[in-house]
Please model this.
Amino acid sequence: MQHCVILHVASIKHHSRCTSMWRLTKMRLEDARKDHYRKLAKMDGYRSRSAYKLSQLDCSYGIFKPRNSVVDIGSSPGGWLQVAKQKVGAEAVVIGIDIKHTRPLQGVEILQGSIIDPRMIDKILKMVGGRVDIVLSDLSPNLSGIWDLDHNRQISLTRSALAASIRLLKSDGISVFKVFEGEFLEPLKTEIKCHFRRVYTNKPRASRQKSSEQYIICFNFILT
Model:
């Protein structure tokens, strides 16, 4: 009996070691993935590795077309603006807005301010000369490490981006929203589906697989 107990304890220890090694390997793979896209961004001249997230979403869903007008909410440091400008071309209007300072980008209009300020929405509409084709949002709060709080804050930011999209988008326009998984995500999706005819959820390869972020890609905005 004692022999069996010793064997059982040894088996548990072996399983624990294997589990720890598997977790360590997974963490190393995640770090390698992160480092890969960071190095790639530096080589390709992108300001952030998140540029590849948008590029991969575009490859999957065909978000951009030449001469589309684009507004990027939460645009700093500018990686998504770079991708958007490359996709829509030199003649298209691309506007970035963020409460943080964003370094200038050739061919892109940069606004510093909050999207919840109605004057900012009016300013964008005036700059474009009407409604826009695409609204992007990669908004994220300053993370506290308290998951319920971070999730709640992120979903609240995305709701603000949705409200801005409703005021900015043309009929049949497109939006892309970053979201965090959690209890408030499904109600947000339900709300989004009231305003767009086609809604998809995707986690691009450039996202860290252990992260909770997803992207909601929305087509055919319903202008009322």
Summary: The longest strand covers residues 169-180. The chain has six helices and seven strands. The mean pLDDT is 88. The first helix runs from residue 2 to 44.
